[in-house]
Write a structure and sequence with these properties.
The chain contains 4 helices and 21 strands. It is an alpha+beta fold. It folds into 4 domains: 99 residues, conserved putative lor/sdh protein from methanococcus maripaludis s2 fold (Beta Barrel), CATH 2.40.420.20; 91 residues, Efflux pump adaptor protein, beta barrel domain (Elongation Factor Tu (Ef-tu), domain 3), CATH 2.40.30.170; 60 residues, RNA polymerase II/Efflux pump adaptor protein, barrel-sandwich hybrid domain (OB fold (Dihydrolipoamide Acetyltransferase, E2P), Beta Barrel); 88 residues. It is rod-shaped and about 165 Å long.
Length: 406
């Protein structure tokens, strides 16, 4: 009896499970048809004509047009430092003085050695003149058969020896003159100058590396000098914007230091390669800085206008959808409350608007809920829809293409 009731219980449970499974399958089979039949609630925006611009915004840093360090060519104690950070300097201005006692002594020694060499050369010239006279006398006596041949040979040898000594002494004079010039040059190196060749425009001291009294070695930096009347904004452009960048394009520069000011620059150099690690290319923008508002090292934003189209057909950016790897929009039929998918060719796209190149369209497009639509789908529109009744004008907010230095 127990086995009988147990069998009935099992049969009842299996029957209940089968009925529940059937209900789920039936419900799942009916759901797509119901969804397809249901109208999709959407919002719509107006298609209109307006100006649109393709603008890229890039970030980077300012660098001076040129920058170099001033260092001594000789070692010695820094006796006097004549400039400090922020001071303007002109070309060839003396900015530091080293202790020159040792070099002054070397100069005096070189002068003395030159005088000795000159005196020795004068003595050799006198000996040469006496040897020449002796040779002439011996030759005349030999012609008269008074002097022997050996006497003539001895006088000729003495003459040649004096000539050689004179050449050596004159060479020593040249050597001592060169040593004197070297000593004078080394002494001049104790006055350290800021030197550049390109122009006579004033430059500025950027950094100071030593203090007075320091013992400097050859080529040890004292200060850095930079040119800040013309600055370079270095930005990095991503791969998709690289073909749009051209030398000579104008860039509008802004910085957090002066939020109410903008500065105009020109693209001067474009790197011929993209960094493999970041897929970005270096772009240099020259910025005139006559009022010296901008400073090297500042963070800047560069806005570059790539293209501008007037009277373009514009749709809200949110209305764009992709179907079968193509862009398109859903045109709204307000009378029949239908949505029709139209493939489109887009032009300039920014955060707010998209330009439609083909085909020519007008009216309304779905901007919200369009990802749920299919071609010919039924739709419902809200009773109050500002996007439908009052088409907004394009503000053409540029795409913010942010690229930092890497």
């Amino acid at each position: 009896m127990k086995k009988f009731f147990l069998g009935l219980l099992v049969l009842a449970i299996v029957s209940a499970l089968g009925w529940m499974t059937y209900q789920r399958i039936t419900s799942a089979a009916n759901t797509p048809d119901q969804r397809r039949a249901a109208a999709v609630a959407i919002e719509a925006g107006a298609i209109h004509k307006d100006l649109i611009k393709d603008i890229g915004i890039f970030t980077g840093s300012l660098l001076p047009k040129s920058q170099f360090t001033v260092a001594p060519k000789v070692s010695g104690w820094l006796r006097e430092l004549l400039v400090n950070v922020g001071d303007e300097v002109r070309r060839n201005q003396v900015i530091a003085v080293l202790d020159d006692a040792e070099f002054t002594q070397q100069l005096e020694q070189a002068k003395a050695e030159l005088e000795v060499a000159k005196a020795n050369a004068e003595n050799c010239e006198s000996d040469l003149e006496l040897a020449r006279r002796e040779y002439d006398r011996a030759k005349a006596l030999r012609d008269k058969q008074i002097a022997s041949a050996s006497e003539l040979d001895e006088s000729e040898a003495a003459l040649n020896s004096c000539r050689t000594k004179l050449k050596v002494s004159l060479a020593q004079v040249s050597q001592k003159e060169a040593a004197l010039k070297s000593a004078e040059l080394k002494l001049s190196y104790t006055k350290v100058q800021a030197f550049w060749e390109t122009d006579d425009q004033m430059r500025v001291i950027g950094e100071r590396f030593v203090d007075e009294g320091a013992l400097l070695q050859v080529n040890q930096p004292i200060v850095s000098v930079l040119e800040n009347h013309l600055l370079i904004a270095v930005v990095f452009v991503v791969e998709k914007d690289y073909p749009k960048i051209k030398i000579g394009q104008r860039a509008i520069i802004s910085t957090d230091a002066y939020p109410d000011k903008t500065f105009t620059g020109t693209i001067e150099r474009i790197a011929p390669l993209l960094r493999e690690s970041s897929r970005q290319a270096r772009v240099e923008i020259e910025i005139p800085n006559p009022d010296l508002f901008l400073k090297p090292g500042m963070f800047v934003r560069a806005k570059i206008e790539f293209a501008s189209h007037e009277n373009a057909t514009l749709v809200p950016f949110a209305s764009l959808v992709r179907r079968n790897e193509r862009y398109g929009v859903f045109l709204i039929d307000k009378e029949n409350l239908k949505a029709r998918f139209v493939p489109v060719t887009v032009g300039i796209i920014n955060d707010a608007w998209a330009e439609i190149l083909e085909p020519q369209i007008s009216g309304l497009v779905a901007t919200l809920g369009n990802h749920l639509l299919e071609d010919g789908a039924d739709i419902t529109l809200p009773d109050v829809n500002p996007a439908v009744t009052e088409p907004q004008k394009s503000d053409n907010k540029p795409t913010s293409t942010q690229s930092g230095q890497s």
